[in-house]
Design goal:
The chain is an alpha+beta fold. Among the domains are: 60-171 and 182-195, no CATH class; 208-269; 276-302 and 341-388, no CATH class. The chain has helices at residues 2-42, 48-51, 81-93, 218-232, 257-265, 352-361, 366-378, and strands spanning 46-47, 52-54, 60-69, 109-117, 126-133, 144-151, 157-164, 170-173, 178-181, 186-195, 208-213, 237-241, 244-248, 268-269, 276-280, 285-288, 293-294, 297-299, 304-310, 313-315, 327-329, 332-338, 344-346, 382-383, 385-388. 18% of the residues are buried.
Amino acid sequence: MAIEHSGQNLAVLSDEWIKGSHIMKNCITIILCIFCMVVANTAHAVRIKDLASFEGVRDNQLMGYGLVVGLNSTGDSDQAKIQTQSVVNMLERMGITTNINDIKIKNVAAVMVTATLPPFAKQGNRLDVLVSSIGDAKSIAGGTLIMAPLKGADNQVYAVAQGSILTDSFAFGGQGATAQKNHPTAGRVPNGALIERELPNTLTGKSALNLNLNVADFTTASRIVTAINDMFKSTVAFSSDPGSVTLTIPEPYANRTVEFVAALERLEIKPDIQAKVVLNERTGTIVMGESVRIATVAITHGSLSLVIKEAPQVSQPSPFSKTGETAVIPRTDLKITEENRRLMVMPEGASIGDVVRALNLLGVTPRDLISILQAVKAAGALQAELTII
């Protein structure tokens, strides 16, 4: 009896364990569904930092002229007088007087030096510079850039560049053949520029800031304003146009502009995306946004294939025949093939997924799909901007 009783207890425990495992599985399934819903709702959230930038916080272009020395007879030829005059001027600044007609050099190349000065760059920071030949030099690989001042649009010197040039290329050859890899007349000097002048801080002492959207959009600007005002619980932001948002720095952040900007950049919103279809007829590439919709339209796609083959037959008399002549009898083989395609009706408001699935059922290729989308747009049923590149 005790054994039977214990067996009943084990059976009851087993049933309860099975029920508990089912409940656990159902709970896990519900949790996963909730997690997927949350991820789906927040998947398109983008930081304001990636959607806009503050007015005045931008890069600045720098440009200068310089000389590359140490080339192995691959520099500018004597016909390019610019590098010869530059060498004479450089020697005169060093106290060496010489005549331009007495100088014959092939190891020097005249180059243009460019760099990008980032915002808030400090004196003593280094920048990468690009070096490009402006003469008839064959290669600047292995050369050294002599100190070249880099100026901004205001004609002020902001950096000085100097150093060894890396081109990751070569160019060799003779009278009969040449060998070249990459582009030997342009290169880079990593950390080759030293910043000598700083740009003024555009955020210091300001009570208001302007946030410029990368892509102007009324809905996105409105959502940014709403999110910022909800975050600070006051009217901090307002927008007068779809391309910018004006921010008033609140009192708690009066002397903490950096903290205020950092808090705004981390704020996430869901930007509005314009319905657009981009077609590339050369490669057959098609890109469609999720907002693309079409009106009710019937689509069919088929092709008519016509093959004409000429196979003339020659008729000639038998050997040693006294009568008859050779004649050419024309013969044409004609074959017409038309694909049997169904008529597909797309309902109004069909999404991009519905469009793709329906067109896949028609068995169209990417190039055929380009023609279909152009025809649907011409019919006025494609509710999106069609761009052909």
